Amino acid sequence: MISKIFGWLGRKVVLYVAVLAAMLAYVVWSSGDIQATWTRSQTLNLHQAGQLQGLVEADERLRDELALKLKRAGEAAQRESVVELEKQIRETQAGLRQLQADRPSSLDAMLAKATLNIKAIRAEHERILRIAFLKRKIEGLNKAADAARNYDAALEISRENARKAETKISREREVSTQALEDSWRKMNVGQAKCRATKAAVIKFDESWEAVTLERLPFRHRRADLVRTKDAQCADSRKAEDAFRQAQKNVNYWRQARAGADQLPKRVSDWIDNELPDITGALKERVIDEQKRAEETISAWATWAWTHYNVGKVVKVALATLGLIITTPFLIRLFCYFVLAPIAMRRPSIQLRVPEGGGVAIAPAAPSATSVAVRLAPGQELLVRQGYFQTSSLTTKPKTKWVLNWCRLFTSIATGLTFLVRIRGEGETTTISAIRDGLTEITILTLPEGAACVLQPRALAAVAQSIHRPLRISRHWRLGSLNAWLTLQLRYLVFHGPAQLVLKGGRGVRVEAAEHGRVFGQDQLVGFSDDLAYSVTRTEPFWPYFFGQQPLLKDRVMAGTGVLIIEEAPLTARRGEVRRGLEGMIDAGMKVFGM
Protein backbone atom coordinates (compact mmCIF):
# COMPACT_ATOMS: atom_id res chain seq x y z
CA MET A 1 0.00 0.00 0.00
CA ILE A 2 2.83 2.41 0.89
CA SER A 3 4.56 1.59 -2.38
CA LYS A 4 1.38 2.30 -4.32
CA ILE A 5 0.80 5.59 -2.48
CA PHE A 6 4.32 6.81 -3.14
CA GLY A 7 4.11 5.56 -6.71
CA TRP A 8 0.89 7.51 -7.21
CA LEU A 9 2.42 10.64 -5.69
CA GLY A 10 5.55 10.25 -7.81
CA ARG A 11 3.51 9.93 -11.00
CA LYS A 12 1.49 13.02 -10.13
CA VAL A 13 4.63 15.03 -9.38
CA VAL A 14 6.08 14.01 -12.73
CA LEU A 15 2.77 14.86 -14.37
CA TYR A 16 2.72 18.28 -12.70
CA VAL A 17 6.28 19.01 -13.80
CA ALA A 18 5.35 18.00 -17.33
CA VAL A 19 2.23 20.20 -17.31
CA LEU A 20 4.18 23.14 -15.87
CA ALA A 21 7.00 22.67 -18.38
CA ALA A 22 4.51 22.50 -21.24
CA MET A 23 2.76 25.69 -20.11
CA LEU A 24 6.01 27.56 -19.61
CA ALA A 25 7.27 26.36 -22.96
CA TYR A 26 4.10 27.61 -24.60
CA VAL A 27 4.36 30.99 -22.84
CA VAL A 28 8.00 31.39 -23.86
CA TRP A 29 7.33 30.23 -27.40
CA SER A 30 4.32 32.48 -27.86
CA SER A 31 6.22 35.51 -26.54
CA GLY A 32 8.46 35.47 -29.60
CA ASP A 33 11.69 36.28 -27.76
CA ILE A 34 13.27 32.86 -27.29
CA GLN A 35 16.35 33.87 -29.24
CA ALA A 36 16.62 37.25 -27.51
CA THR A 37 16.36 35.81 -24.01
CA TRP A 38 19.99 34.72 -23.66
CA THR A 39 21.42 37.87 -25.23
CA ARG A 40 19.30 40.09 -22.97
CA SER A 41 19.89 38.05 -19.83
CA GLN A 42 23.22 39.80 -19.16
CA THR A 43 21.49 43.14 -18.46
CA LEU A 44 18.41 41.91 -16.64
CA ASN A 45 19.66 41.62 -13.08
CA LEU A 46 18.95 45.18 -11.97
CA HIS A 47 18.17 44.15 -8.43
CA GLN A 48 21.36 42.18 -7.99
CA ALA A 49 23.35 44.89 -9.73
CA GLY A 50 21.94 47.35 -7.22
CA GLN A 51 22.98 45.06 -4.40
CA LEU A 52 26.50 44.92 -5.79
CA GLN A 53 26.58 48.70 -6.10
CA GLY A 54 25.63 48.84 -2.45
CA LEU A 55 28.44 46.38 -1.74
CA VAL A 56 30.94 48.68 -3.49
CA GLU A 57 29.74 51.63 -1.42
CA ALA A 58 29.92 49.58 1.78
CA ASP A 59 33.50 48.58 0.91
CA GLU A 60 34.39 52.23 0.35
CA ARG A 61 32.87 53.26 3.68
CA LEU A 62 34.67 50.47 5.48
CA ARG A 63 37.95 51.40 3.78
CA ASP A 64 37.57 55.06 4.85
CA GLU A 65 36.67 53.98 8.37
CA LEU A 66 39.69 51.72 8.63
CA ALA A 67 41.94 54.42 7.17
CA LEU A 68 40.71 56.83 9.86
CA LYS A 69 41.31 54.23 12.54
CA LEU A 70 44.82 53.69 11.13
CA LYS A 71 45.50 57.42 11.34
CA ARG A 72 44.29 57.59 14.94
CA ALA A 73 46.31 54.53 15.83
CA GLY A 74 49.39 56.30 14.38
CA GLU A 75 48.73 59.42 16.42
CA ALA A 76 48.28 57.38 19.57
CA ALA A 77 51.40 55.35 18.88
CA GLN A 78 53.58 58.48 19.12
CA ARG A 79 52.70 58.77 22.80
CA GLU A 80 53.08 55.12 23.77
CA SER A 81 56.08 53.43 25.32
CA VAL A 82 58.03 50.65 23.69
CA VAL A 83 56.43 48.06 26.03
CA GLU A 84 52.89 49.17 25.14
CA LEU A 85 53.69 49.20 21.42
CA GLU A 86 55.08 45.64 21.55
CA LYS A 87 51.91 44.52 23.38
CA GLN A 88 49.74 46.08 20.65
CA ILE A 89 51.82 44.34 17.98
CA ARG A 90 51.23 40.94 19.60
CA GLU A 91 47.45 41.54 19.90
CA THR A 92 47.21 42.75 16.32
CA GLN A 93 49.13 39.72 15.04
CA ALA A 94 46.75 37.39 16.92
CA GLY A 95 43.76 39.12 15.33
CA LEU A 96 45.40 38.82 11.92
CA ARG A 97 45.96 35.07 12.34
CA GLN A 98 42.31 34.64 13.38
CA LEU A 99 41.04 36.48 10.28
CA GLN A 100 43.34 34.46 8.02
CA ALA A 101 42.09 31.23 9.61
CA ASP A 102 38.46 32.25 8.97
CA ARG A 103 38.95 32.14 5.21
CA PRO A 104 36.06 30.23 3.56
CA SER A 105 36.74 27.05 1.61
CA SER A 106 37.26 27.17 -2.13
CA LEU A 107 33.92 25.39 -2.67
CA ASP A 108 32.02 27.90 -0.51
CA ALA A 109 33.70 30.81 -2.28
CA MET A 110 32.88 29.32 -5.68
CA LEU A 111 29.24 28.74 -4.71
CA ALA A 112 28.97 32.28 -3.31
CA LYS A 113 30.19 33.69 -6.63
CA ALA A 114 28.06 31.37 -8.74
CA THR A 115 24.86 32.04 -6.79
CA LEU A 116 25.78 35.68 -6.05
CA ASN A 117 25.42 35.36 -2.28
CA ILE A 118 25.72 39.06 -1.38
CA LYS A 119 26.00 38.34 2.34
CA ALA A 120 28.88 35.91 1.87
CA ILE A 121 30.68 38.20 -0.60
CA ARG A 122 30.32 41.19 1.75
CA ALA A 123 31.73 39.14 4.64
CA GLU A 124 34.70 38.05 2.50
CA HIS A 125 35.40 41.63 1.38
CA GLU A 126 35.25 42.87 4.97
CA ARG A 127 37.65 40.11 6.00
CA ILE A 128 40.13 41.09 3.26
CA LEU A 129 39.96 44.77 4.17
CA ARG A 130 40.47 44.07 7.85
CA ILE A 131 43.42 41.81 7.07
CA ALA A 132 44.98 44.65 5.05
CA PHE A 133 44.24 47.09 7.90
CA LEU A 134 45.90 44.83 10.47
CA LYS A 135 48.95 44.29 8.25
CA ARG A 136 49.36 48.04 7.79
CA LYS A 137 48.84 48.63 11.50
CA ILE A 138 51.51 46.05 12.38
CA GLU A 139 53.89 47.74 9.95
CA GLY A 140 53.17 51.15 11.52
CA LEU A 141 53.50 49.83 15.06
CA ASN A 142 56.85 48.30 14.20
CA LYS A 143 58.05 51.62 12.82
CA ALA A 144 56.70 53.49 15.82
CA ALA A 145 58.44 51.04 18.15
CA ASP A 146 61.73 51.47 16.29
CA ALA A 147 61.30 55.24 16.48
CA ALA A 148 60.62 55.02 20.20
CA ARG A 149 63.79 53.00 20.75
CA ASN A 150 65.93 55.55 18.86
CA TYR A 151 64.17 58.66 20.13
CA ASP A 152 67.00 59.93 22.36
CA ALA A 153 69.57 59.61 19.62
CA ALA A 154 67.19 61.41 17.30
CA LEU A 155 66.83 64.26 19.79
CA GLU A 156 70.63 64.79 20.07
CA ILE A 157 71.10 64.71 16.33
CA SER A 158 68.28 67.22 15.94
CA ARG A 159 69.82 69.65 18.44
CA GLU A 160 73.23 69.43 16.75
CA ASN A 161 71.70 70.09 13.36
CA ALA A 162 69.80 73.03 14.81
CA ARG A 163 73.01 74.62 16.15
CA LYS A 164 74.78 74.21 12.80
CA ALA A 165 71.86 75.76 10.96
CA GLU A 166 71.50 78.70 13.38
CA THR A 167 74.47 80.67 12.03
CA LYS A 168 73.50 80.22 8.40
CA ILE A 169 69.90 81.08 9.07
CA SER A 170 70.80 84.29 10.98
CA ARG A 171 73.15 85.47 8.23
CA GLU A 172 70.73 84.80 5.43
CA ARG A 173 67.93 86.39 7.37
CA GLU A 174 69.89 89.68 7.76
CA VAL A 175 70.67 89.73 4.03
CA SER A 176 67.00 89.09 3.22
CA THR A 177 65.86 91.86 5.56
CA GLN A 178 68.23 94.43 3.93
CA ALA A 179 67.06 93.35 0.48
CA LEU A 180 63.46 93.77 1.60
CA GLU A 181 64.11 97.39 2.67
CA ASP A 182 65.88 98.26 -0.61
CA SER A 183 63.13 96.75 -2.71
CA TRP A 184 60.50 98.59 -0.70
CA ARG A 185 62.13 101.96 -1.43
CA LYS A 186 62.51 101.15 -5.12
CA MET A 187 58.88 100.09 -5.28
CA ASN A 188 57.70 103.41 -3.76
CA VAL A 189 59.80 105.46 -6.18
CA GLY A 190 58.59 103.46 -9.17
CA GLN A 191 54.94 103.75 -8.14
CA ALA A 192 55.31 107.56 -7.79
CA LYS A 193 56.85 107.91 -11.27
CA CYS A 194 54.15 105.69 -12.78
CA ARG A 195 51.40 107.81 -11.23
CA ALA A 196 53.07 111.03 -12.46
CA THR A 197 53.32 109.88 -16.07
CA LYS A 198 49.72 108.65 -16.04
CA ALA A 199 48.61 112.06 -14.78
CA ALA A 200 50.59 113.81 -17.57
CA VAL A 201 48.86 111.75 -20.25
CA ILE A 202 45.42 112.45 -18.76
CA LYS A 203 46.15 116.18 -18.52
CA PHE A 204 47.32 116.31 -22.15
CA ASP A 205 44.18 114.52 -23.34
CA GLU A 206 41.97 117.03 -21.49
CA SER A 207 43.73 120.22 -22.83
CA TRP A 208 42.63 122.24 -25.96
CA GLU A 209 46.00 121.53 -27.51
CA ALA A 210 45.23 117.87 -28.02
CA VAL A 211 42.75 118.47 -30.81
CA THR A 212 44.78 121.24 -32.44
CA LEU A 213 48.07 119.38 -32.42
CA GLU A 214 46.50 116.39 -34.16
CA ARG A 215 46.72 118.46 -37.41
CA LEU A 216 50.22 119.79 -36.84
CA PRO A 217 53.60 118.22 -37.48
CA PHE A 218 54.13 118.07 -33.66
CA ARG A 219 51.32 115.55 -33.04
CA HIS A 220 53.86 112.90 -31.91
CA ARG A 221 54.07 114.70 -28.55
CA ARG A 222 51.34 112.54 -26.97
CA ALA A 223 52.98 109.32 -28.17
CA ASP A 224 56.15 110.27 -26.32
CA LEU A 225 54.15 110.85 -23.15
CA VAL A 226 52.51 107.37 -23.49
CA ARG A 227 55.87 105.61 -24.02
CA THR A 228 57.31 107.35 -20.95
CA LYS A 229 54.26 106.27 -18.91
CA ASP A 230 54.55 102.61 -20.04
CA ALA A 231 58.28 102.50 -19.21
CA GLN A 232 57.81 104.01 -15.74
CA CYS A 233 54.87 101.70 -14.91
CA ALA A 234 56.81 98.61 -16.10
CA ASP A 235 59.70 99.54 -13.79
CA SER A 236 57.18 100.01 -10.98
CA ARG A 237 55.78 96.49 -11.50
CA LYS A 238 59.27 94.98 -11.49
CA ALA A 239 59.97 96.76 -8.21
CA GLU A 240 56.72 95.33 -6.76
CA ASP A 241 57.68 91.78 -7.83
CA ALA A 242 61.12 92.21 -6.27
CA PHE A 243 59.50 93.43 -3.06
CA ARG A 244 57.18 90.39 -2.86
CA GLN A 245 60.07 87.99 -3.51
CA ALA A 246 62.06 89.68 -0.74
CA GLN A 247 59.07 89.16 1.58
CA LYS A 248 59.00 85.44 0.72
CA ASN A 249 62.73 85.15 1.46
CA VAL A 250 62.31 86.84 4.82
CA ASN A 251 59.35 84.52 5.69
CA TYR A 252 61.31 81.46 4.56
CA TRP A 253 64.25 82.14 6.81
CA ARG A 254 61.88 83.07 9.65
CA GLN A 255 60.18 79.67 9.31
CA ALA A 256 63.53 77.92 9.01
CA ARG A 257 64.57 79.57 12.26
CA ALA A 258 61.43 78.37 13.97
CA GLY A 259 61.87 74.83 12.56
CA ALA A 260 65.44 74.64 13.73
CA ASP A 261 64.26 75.05 17.31
CA GLN A 262 61.66 72.18 17.02
CA LEU A 263 62.39 68.62 18.23
CA PRO A 264 61.79 65.59 15.94
CA LYS A 265 58.41 63.84 16.16
CA ARG A 266 57.88 60.08 16.11
CA VAL A 267 54.89 60.46 13.81
CA SER A 268 57.33 60.86 10.95
CA ASP A 269 58.07 57.17 11.39
CA TRP A 270 54.40 56.07 11.00
CA ILE A 271 52.96 54.68 7.76
CA ASP A 272 50.53 56.36 5.36
CA ASN A 273 46.90 56.33 6.43
CA GLU A 274 45.52 55.04 3.13
CA LEU A 275 45.11 51.40 2.10
CA PRO A 276 46.34 51.61 -1.50
CA ASP A 277 46.93 47.93 -2.17
CA ILE A 278 43.42 46.76 -1.31
CA THR A 279 40.88 49.24 -2.58
CA GLY A 280 41.79 49.05 -6.25
CA ALA A 281 41.84 45.26 -6.25
CA LEU A 282 38.48 45.15 -4.48
CA LYS A 283 36.90 47.54 -6.97
CA GLU A 284 38.07 45.42 -9.88
CA ARG A 285 36.86 42.32 -8.12
CA VAL A 286 33.43 43.81 -7.40
CA ILE A 287 33.12 45.00 -11.01
CA ASP A 288 33.96 41.51 -12.25
CA GLU A 289 31.44 39.99 -9.90
CA GLN A 290 28.88 42.55 -11.01
CA LYS A 291 29.42 41.45 -14.59
CA ARG A 292 29.19 37.82 -13.57
CA ALA A 293 26.04 38.58 -11.59
CA GLU A 294 24.37 39.81 -14.75
CA GLU A 295 25.21 36.48 -16.39
CA THR A 296 24.05 34.16 -13.59
CA ILE A 297 21.16 31.75 -13.92
CA SER A 298 19.44 33.48 -11.02
CA ALA A 299 19.48 36.75 -12.97
CA TRP A 300 17.78 35.18 -15.95
CA ALA A 301 15.40 33.27 -13.69
CA THR A 302 14.41 36.46 -11.87
CA TRP A 303 13.72 38.20 -15.15
CA ALA A 304 11.87 35.22 -16.59
CA TRP A 305 9.70 34.89 -13.46
CA THR A 306 8.47 38.44 -13.92
CA HIS A 307 8.48 38.64 -17.71
CA TYR A 308 6.51 35.44 -18.29
CA ASN A 309 4.36 35.76 -15.13
CA VAL A 310 5.55 32.35 -13.93
CA GLY A 311 3.65 32.72 -10.65
CA LYS A 312 0.35 32.74 -12.53
CA VAL A 313 1.48 29.83 -14.72
CA VAL A 314 2.33 27.81 -11.59
CA LYS A 315 -1.16 28.40 -10.24
CA VAL A 316 -2.77 27.46 -13.55
CA ALA A 317 -0.59 24.34 -13.68
CA LEU A 318 -1.74 23.42 -10.16
CA ALA A 319 -5.35 23.90 -11.19
CA THR A 320 -4.73 21.82 -14.33
CA LEU A 321 -3.08 19.10 -12.27
CA GLY A 322 -6.05 19.08 -9.89
CA LEU A 323 -8.39 18.80 -12.85
CA ILE A 324 -6.34 15.97 -14.35
CA ILE A 325 -6.32 14.11 -11.03
CA THR A 326 -10.02 14.56 -10.30
CA THR A 327 -11.29 14.03 -13.86
CA PRO A 328 -10.82 10.21 -13.82
CA PHE A 329 -12.68 10.01 -10.51
CA LEU A 330 -15.48 12.22 -11.82
CA ILE A 331 -15.68 10.08 -14.94
CA ARG A 332 -15.80 6.95 -12.79
CA LEU A 333 -18.66 8.41 -10.74
CA PHE A 334 -20.53 9.27 -13.92
CA CYS A 335 -19.91 5.86 -15.42
CA TYR A 336 -20.85 3.97 -12.25
CA PHE A 337 -24.05 5.81 -11.37
CA VAL A 338 -25.25 6.88 -14.84
CA LEU A 339 -23.72 4.91 -17.69
CA ALA A 340 -23.56 1.46 -16.04
CA PRO A 341 -27.25 1.42 -15.00
CA ILE A 342 -28.22 2.41 -18.56
CA ALA A 343 -26.07 -0.42 -19.96
CA MET A 344 -27.59 -2.93 -17.53
CA ARG A 345 -31.07 -2.07 -18.81
CA ARG A 346 -30.13 -2.64 -22.44
CA PRO A 347 -31.20 -5.92 -24.11
CA SER A 348 -28.79 -8.82 -23.81
CA ILE A 349 -26.84 -10.31 -26.69
CA GLN A 350 -28.34 -13.63 -27.75
CA LEU A 351 -27.05 -15.33 -30.85
CA ARG A 352 -29.62 -17.12 -32.99
CA VAL A 353 -27.99 -20.04 -34.76
CA PRO A 354 -30.62 -21.79 -36.90
CA GLU A 355 -28.37 -24.76 -37.46
CA GLY A 356 -27.82 -25.25 -33.75
CA GLY A 357 -31.15 -26.68 -32.93
CA GLY A 358 -30.64 -25.96 -29.24
CA VAL A 359 -28.70 -29.19 -28.57
CA ALA A 360 -27.32 -29.17 -25.07
CA ILE A 361 -23.58 -29.25 -24.40
CA ALA A 362 -22.40 -31.35 -21.52
CA PRO A 363 -19.95 -29.79 -19.05
CA ALA A 364 -16.36 -30.89 -19.53
CA ALA A 365 -14.14 -32.64 -17.05
CA PRO A 366 -11.89 -30.53 -14.81
CA SER A 367 -8.82 -29.26 -16.60
CA ALA A 368 -5.45 -30.94 -16.17
CA THR A 369 -1.88 -30.42 -17.25
CA SER A 370 -2.38 -32.89 -20.09
CA VAL A 371 -5.17 -34.82 -21.80
CA ALA A 372 -5.22 -37.80 -24.12
CA VAL A 373 -7.31 -37.72 -27.30
CA ARG A 374 -8.26 -41.04 -28.97
CA LEU A 375 -9.41 -40.75 -32.58
CA ALA A 376 -12.60 -42.41 -33.71
CA PRO A 377 -12.95 -43.84 -37.21
CA GLY A 378 -12.90 -41.10 -39.85
CA GLN A 379 -11.49 -38.45 -37.48
CA GLU A 380 -8.36 -36.36 -37.55
CA LEU A 381 -6.62 -34.31 -34.86
CA LEU A 382 -5.22 -30.83 -35.48
CA VAL A 383 -2.82 -29.66 -32.74
CA ARG A 384 -1.48 -26.14 -32.20
CA GLN A 385 2.32 -25.72 -32.17
CA GLY A 386 3.73 -26.15 -28.68
CA TYR A 387 0.99 -28.54 -27.49
CA PHE A 388 1.82 -31.76 -29.33
CA GLN A 389 3.50 -33.86 -26.64
CA THR A 390 3.41 -37.62 -27.34
CA SER A 391 1.91 -40.03 -29.88
CA SER A 392 2.19 -43.71 -30.81
CA LEU A 393 5.00 -45.13 -32.92
CA THR A 394 2.66 -45.79 -35.83
CA THR A 395 1.57 -42.16 -36.01
CA LYS A 396 2.77 -40.22 -39.00
CA PRO A 397 2.20 -36.53 -38.21
CA LYS A 398 1.73 -34.12 -41.06
CA THR A 399 1.21 -30.37 -41.35
CA LYS A 400 -2.01 -28.51 -41.93
CA TRP A 401 -1.25 -24.93 -42.86
CA VAL A 402 -4.29 -23.25 -41.29
CA LEU A 403 -7.22 -24.38 -39.21
CA ASN A 404 -9.86 -23.06 -41.59
CA TRP A 405 -9.22 -21.54 -44.99
CA CYS A 406 -12.53 -19.68 -44.83
CA ARG A 407 -11.26 -17.94 -41.68
CA LEU A 408 -7.71 -17.37 -42.88
CA PHE A 409 -7.11 -14.04 -41.08
CA THR A 410 -8.55 -15.39 -37.82
CA SER A 411 -6.37 -18.51 -38.02
CA ILE A 412 -3.21 -16.49 -38.65
CA ALA A 413 -3.98 -13.89 -35.94
CA THR A 414 -4.68 -16.53 -33.26
CA GLY A 415 -1.70 -18.75 -34.10
CA LEU A 416 -3.72 -21.62 -35.58
CA THR A 417 -1.20 -22.18 -38.37
CA PHE A 418 1.32 -24.93 -39.06
CA LEU A 419 -0.90 -27.34 -37.15
CA VAL A 420 0.18 -30.90 -36.52
CA ARG A 421 -2.33 -33.23 -38.24
CA ILE A 422 -2.74 -36.79 -37.01
CA ARG A 423 -4.99 -39.44 -38.56
CA GLY A 424 -5.66 -43.09 -37.79
CA GLU A 425 -8.38 -45.00 -36.01
CA GLY A 426 -7.58 -45.54 -32.35
CA GLU A 427 -4.52 -43.26 -32.39
CA THR A 428 -3.99 -41.70 -28.98
CA THR A 429 -2.21 -38.36 -28.66
CA THR A 430 -1.25 -36.55 -25.49
CA ILE A 431 -1.77 -32.83 -25.57
CA SER A 432 -0.05 -30.57 -23.07
CA ALA A 433 1.49 -27.09 -22.90
CA ILE A 434 5.20 -27.60 -23.50
CA ARG A 435 6.40 -24.01 -22.98
CA ASP A 436 3.96 -22.68 -20.34
CA GLY A 437 3.97 -24.61 -17.10
CA LEU A 438 0.83 -22.89 -15.73
CA THR A 439 -1.47 -23.81 -18.62
CA GLU A 440 -4.04 -26.58 -18.10
CA ILE A 441 -6.22 -28.31 -20.67
CA THR A 442 -9.68 -29.83 -20.92
CA ILE A 443 -11.82 -31.35 -23.67
CA LEU A 444 -15.22 -29.93 -24.67
CA THR A 445 -17.36 -32.20 -26.83
CA LEU A 446 -19.76 -30.60 -29.29
CA PRO A 447 -22.40 -33.15 -30.39
CA GLU A 448 -24.17 -33.02 -33.71
CA GLY A 449 -26.28 -29.86 -33.91
CA ALA A 450 -24.60 -28.16 -30.95
CA ALA A 451 -22.85 -24.80 -31.22
CA CYS A 452 -20.97 -22.50 -28.88
CA VAL A 453 -19.31 -19.11 -29.03
CA LEU A 454 -15.56 -19.46 -28.54
CA GLN A 455 -12.48 -17.27 -28.79
CA PRO A 456 -9.96 -19.12 -31.00
CA ARG A 457 -7.08 -18.10 -28.72
CA ALA A 458 -8.31 -20.72 -26.22
CA LEU A 459 -8.13 -23.54 -28.76
CA ALA A 460 -5.23 -25.99 -28.29
CA ALA A 461 -6.42 -28.76 -30.61
CA VAL A 462 -9.46 -29.92 -32.59
CA ALA A 463 -10.67 -33.45 -33.25
CA GLN A 464 -12.96 -33.34 -36.27
CA SER A 465 -14.36 -35.51 -39.01
CA ILE A 466 -12.08 -35.84 -42.02
CA HIS A 467 -14.93 -35.46 -44.47
CA ARG A 468 -16.82 -32.86 -42.46
CA PRO A 469 -14.38 -30.29 -41.05
CA LEU A 470 -15.25 -28.02 -38.20
CA ARG A 471 -17.46 -25.15 -39.32
CA ILE A 472 -16.96 -21.66 -37.92
CA SER A 473 -19.57 -18.94 -38.45
CA ARG A 474 -19.29 -15.27 -37.56
CA HIS A 475 -21.96 -12.99 -36.15
CA TRP A 476 -21.72 -9.19 -35.85
CA ARG A 477 -23.51 -7.11 -33.22
CA LEU A 478 -22.71 -3.53 -34.23
CA GLY A 479 -26.02 -2.13 -32.94
CA SER A 480 -25.72 -3.49 -29.42
CA LEU A 481 -24.57 -1.21 -26.60
CA ASN A 482 -23.42 -4.26 -24.64
CA ALA A 483 -21.17 -5.24 -27.54
CA TRP A 484 -19.56 -1.80 -27.58
CA LEU A 485 -19.16 -1.74 -23.81
CA THR A 486 -17.44 -5.13 -23.82
CA LEU A 487 -15.47 -4.18 -26.97
CA GLN A 488 -16.50 -7.42 -28.70
CA LEU A 489 -18.40 -6.68 -31.88
CA ARG A 490 -17.92 -10.02 -33.65
CA TYR A 491 -18.63 -13.47 -32.25
CA LEU A 492 -17.24 -16.71 -33.71
CA VAL A 493 -19.49 -19.74 -33.34
CA PHE A 494 -18.03 -23.30 -33.55
CA HIS A 495 -20.47 -25.95 -34.80
CA GLY A 496 -20.44 -29.66 -33.95
CA PRO A 497 -19.76 -32.42 -34.24
CA ALA A 498 -16.20 -31.92 -32.92
CA GLN A 499 -14.03 -32.21 -29.88
CA LEU A 500 -12.42 -28.93 -28.81
CA VAL A 501 -9.30 -29.14 -26.69
CA LEU A 502 -9.30 -25.92 -24.67
CA LYS A 503 -6.37 -24.29 -22.85
CA GLY A 504 -6.17 -21.60 -20.21
CA GLY A 505 -3.98 -20.05 -17.59
CA ARG A 506 -4.17 -22.21 -14.46
CA GLY A 507 -6.98 -24.13 -16.12
CA VAL A 508 -10.27 -23.90 -18.03
CA ARG A 509 -13.62 -24.41 -16.34
CA VAL A 510 -16.73 -25.49 -18.25
CA GLU A 511 -19.77 -25.09 -16.01
CA ALA A 512 -23.54 -24.90 -16.32
CA ALA A 513 -25.12 -21.47 -16.40
CA GLU A 514 -28.00 -22.51 -14.08
CA HIS A 515 -29.15 -19.34 -12.31
CA GLY A 516 -26.80 -17.07 -14.23
CA ARG A 517 -23.19 -16.04 -13.65
CA VAL A 518 -21.17 -12.86 -13.23
CA PHE A 519 -17.45 -12.91 -14.06
CA GLY A 520 -14.57 -10.78 -15.29
CA GLN A 521 -14.51 -9.83 -18.94
CA ASP A 522 -11.06 -11.32 -19.51
CA GLN A 523 -12.14 -14.67 -18.08
CA LEU A 524 -14.89 -15.53 -20.53
CA VAL A 525 -13.63 -17.43 -23.58
CA GLY A 526 -16.93 -18.98 -24.71
CA PHE A 527 -20.54 -19.84 -23.97
CA SER A 528 -23.43 -21.82 -25.45
CA ASP A 529 -25.29 -20.20 -28.28
CA ASP A 530 -28.58 -20.32 -26.34
CA LEU A 531 -27.38 -18.08 -23.47
CA ALA A 532 -28.21 -14.38 -23.15
CA TYR A 533 -24.98 -12.41 -22.75
CA SER A 534 -24.85 -8.90 -21.26
CA VAL A 535 -22.95 -6.73 -18.77
CA THR A 536 -23.47 -5.71 -15.18
CA ARG A 537 -21.97 -3.13 -12.87
CA THR A 538 -19.03 -4.25 -10.77
CA GLU A 539 -19.57 -4.56 -7.04
CA PRO A 540 -18.57 -3.23 -4.54
CA PHE A 541 -18.07 0.43 -5.44
CA TRP A 542 -14.80 1.47 -3.76
CA PRO A 543 -12.40 -0.98 -5.50
CA TYR A 544 -13.72 0.30 -8.82
CA PHE A 545 -13.52 3.96 -7.69
CA PHE A 546 -9.82 3.59 -6.88
CA GLY A 547 -9.06 1.73 -10.12
CA GLN A 548 -8.70 -1.77 -8.71
CA GLN A 549 -11.65 -3.22 -10.65
CA PRO A 550 -13.14 -2.45 -14.10
CA LEU A 551 -16.51 -0.75 -14.37
CA LEU A 552 -18.35 -3.67 -15.97
CA LYS A 553 -18.32 -7.42 -15.64
CA ASP A 554 -19.78 -9.96 -18.02
CA ARG A 555 -23.09 -11.59 -17.14
CA VAL A 556 -25.07 -14.47 -18.56
CA MET A 557 -28.69 -14.98 -17.72
CA ALA A 558 -30.14 -18.20 -16.41
CA GLY A 559 -30.26 -21.02 -18.94
CA THR A 560 -29.41 -24.63 -19.73
CA GLY A 561 -26.15 -23.85 -21.56
CA VAL A 562 -22.57 -23.83 -20.35
CA LEU A 563 -19.91 -21.19 -19.80
CA ILE A 564 -16.24 -21.60 -20.67
CA ILE A 565 -14.18 -19.69 -18.12
CA GLU A 566 -10.41 -19.24 -18.01
CA GLU A 567 -9.21 -19.37 -14.43
CA ALA A 568 -6.30 -16.90 -14.67
CA PRO A 569 -6.29 -15.13 -18.06
CA LEU A 570 -3.38 -12.82 -17.17
CA THR A 571 -1.00 -15.62 -16.20
CA ALA A 572 0.95 -15.39 -19.46
CA ARG A 573 1.21 -11.62 -19.00
CA ARG A 574 2.64 -11.77 -15.44
CA GLY A 575 -0.67 -10.64 -13.98
CA GLU A 576 -0.71 -7.28 -15.77
CA VAL A 577 -2.80 -5.80 -18.56
CA ARG A 578 -0.52 -5.09 -21.48
CA ARG A 579 -0.07 -1.47 -22.53
CA GLY A 580 1.04 0.36 -25.65
CA LEU A 581 1.15 -1.51 -28.95
CA GLU A 582 0.58 -4.92 -27.32
CA GLY A 583 -2.49 -3.57 -25.54
CA MET A 584 -3.84 -2.21 -28.83
CA ILE A 585 -3.36 -5.61 -30.47
CA ASP A 586 -5.17 -7.36 -27.60
CA ALA A 587 -8.06 -4.89 -27.84
CA GLY A 588 -8.27 -5.38 -31.59
CA MET A 589 -8.40 -9.14 -31.27
CA LYS A 590 -11.16 -8.83 -28.68
CA VAL A 591 -13.18 -6.60 -31.01
CA PHE A 592 -13.08 -9.34 -33.64
CA GLY A 593 -13.92 -12.09 -31.12
CA MET A 594 -10.49 -13.76 -31.26
Structural commentary:
This protein is of the alpha+beta class and 594 residues long. Among the domains are: 175-262; 370-591, Double-stranded beta-helix (4-Layer Sandwich), CATH 3.60.160.10. The protein contains 16 helices and 18 strands. The protein has helices at 2-31, 34-40, 46-77, 82-101, 106-115, 118-149, 151-206, 209-213, 221-260, 276-293, 297-307, 310-345, 408-413, 481-486, 541-545, 580-591; strands at 370-374, 379-383, 388-390, 398-402, 417-423, 428-432, 439-446, 451-454, 459-465, 471-476, 490-495, 498-505, 508-514, 517-519, 524-528, 533-537, 552-556, 559-566. The protein has a 6-stranded antiparallel beta sheet with strand order 4-5-2-9-12-7. The chain has a 6-stranded antiparallel beta sheet with strand order 10-11-8-15-18-13, with no helix packed on it. The protein has a 3-stranded antiparallel beta sheet with strand order 1-6-3, with no helix packed on it. Helix 1 crosses helix 12 (310-345). The chain is rod-shaped and about 165 Å long. Mean pLDDT is 77; it is low at 41-45.
